[in-house]
Design a protein that fits this description.
Helices cover about 60% and strands about 10% of the residues. The protein is of the alpha/beta class. Strands 1, 2, 3, 4, 5 and 6 form a 6-stranded mixed β-sheet that branches.
Length: about 425
């Protein structure tokens, strides 16, 4: 919608006052003309009749963003997504929510640093937690993104426990960037306590993952209090192929370190959260790194790989939808944003789009096996594939050149993991 259309749309509304579609276009045109007060009023009228209208939602949210009322904008976007997460235009709303959260997180990080002395005097809520990116000890650099992915999974799992409130990943990432700590190794306890005060978290979780080429892997998690005091680490160990199950066990151990015993319902929620597919999880972790760096095109490619490996991985699916349109939404004019919102959400990529999907899917059960396990697993897979091979199958459609690097990475990951 363009400002020039305002007179025509106003005239139509005089004749058709109950036409919510015309009113939504009118609100968008007003927004494009930078008349946010009127645009918001009209968009609110639309939502009274059509609460699932993504265009009206974007108008209200972006008017709040223009006024730097990011919390209001986030409330609008999140309320819509909670009720209408699969509605037409939901991907544009989800993308806008991520962009608003990035802007809000950066503003909050800078404000916190300006007011650090005052924040230091305020005791943080001990039930507000922040999870730092895990330190990954491994000789395989392709596994480094797991530090971000495991931290996000710990955050997601701990948020399912009714007592705790978790600091969002982007808020923490923005502060670490401002402190220039995002790419460093393990943060010392005093610095971790400082980070906690700045994000107003009473306690931080600091983790470590040792992923050797042979033998057992080990996950550790310690709780850092606002005073800098550190609990003894909760430790779990096992095979790499069971890494995601080990993360769940670590959550239970950490809850105990935090003074909380999970209920059976909470334990089930934690166990069912996320994916059990390591290939999907590694691709998702790579996507988080790209998203945190603001590279939405690469993030969408990685999240797409995660959805291909595990179509039921909901977090990856939602991240794919947001990242796939975030660049368009970010660069669009106000009228173009409403065009994006009027389109259906982009479908998740299908297996036919990736030439290595079959390799990923058949290898995922043994992607984390040690060398002796891999040898046995290769024999099992060969027999199973020979027995179950179809008589003929068409070759999958190759992916575009823009995502070829991601495919190469997946091939290397699948066949080189310890």
């Amino acid at each position: 919608m363009a400002p020039a259309e305002i007179p025509e749309l106003a005239a139509r509304l005089e004749r058709e006052p109950d036409n919510a579609a015309v009113r939504a276009r009118y609100a968008a045109a007003l927004f494009a003309a930078d008349q946010c007060e009127q645009a918001t009023q009209q968009a609110q009228l639309v939502r009274q009749r059509r609460p699932a209208d993504a265009v009206a939602t974007l108008v209200i949210g972006q008017c709040a963003e223009k006024a730097q009322r990011y919390e209001d904008a986030l409330a609008v976007y999140r309320g819509f997504l909670a009720e209408y997460g699969e509605a037409r235009g939901s991907a544009a709303v989800r993308a806008r929510e991520q962009l608003a959260l990035r802007a809000f997180s950066l503003a909050q990080a800078r404000l916190a640093l300006q007011n650090e002395a005052q924040l230091a005097a305020q005791p943080g809520d001990p039930n507000t937690l922040a999870v730092l990116p895990l330190t990954i000890a491994t000789t395989d650099t392709s596994l480094a993104p797991l530090g971000r992915g495991l931290a996000q999974m710990l955050t997601s799992d701990l948020s399912l426990i009714r007592r705790f409130r978790l600091v969002e990943r982007l808020r923490l990432a923005a502060l670490l960037d401002e402190l220039r700590l995002a790419q460093t190794e393990r943060v010392d306890p005093s610095t971790a306590a400082r980070v906690g005060r700045l994000v107003q978290a009473g306690r931080l979780v600091q983790g470590f993952a040792n992923l050797p080429p042979e033998g057992q892997v080990r996950l550790e998690g310690s709780v850092v209090a606002a005073t800098g005091e550190v609990t003894g680490p909760a430790t779990v160990a096992g095979r790499f192929r069971d890494l995601l199950q080990l993360e769940k066990e670590l959550v239970v151990e950490l809850a105990g370190r935090l003074g909380y015993q999970l209920s059976e319902a909470e334990r089930r929620l934690v166990l069912e959260n996320g994916t059990r597919n390591l290939a999907a999880f590694l691709a998702y972790s790579q996507g988080l790194l790209a998203e945190d760096a603001g590279d939405f095109q690469r993030a969408a490619a990685y999240f797409g790989d995660a959805v291909r490996a595990d179509p039921g991985f909901q977090a990856a699916r939602e991240s794919y939808q947001a990242a796939s349109v975030a660049t368009q939404v970010q660069q669009a004019s106000p009228s173009q944003v409403t065009t994006v919102a009027s389109q259906p959400s982009p479908p998740p990529p299908t297996a036919a789009e990736n030439t290595v999907t079959s390799a990923v899917n058949t290898s995922v059960g043994d992607v984390a096996a040690n060398k002796s396990e891999q040898t046995a697993a290769t024999g099992r897979q060969s027999g199973e594939q020979a027995a179950n091979a179809p008589s003929a199958s068409p070759p999958p459609t190759p992916r575009s050149e823009g995502t070829s690097q991601t495919v190469t990475g997946l091939i290397r990951i699948v066949f080189r993991l310890p």
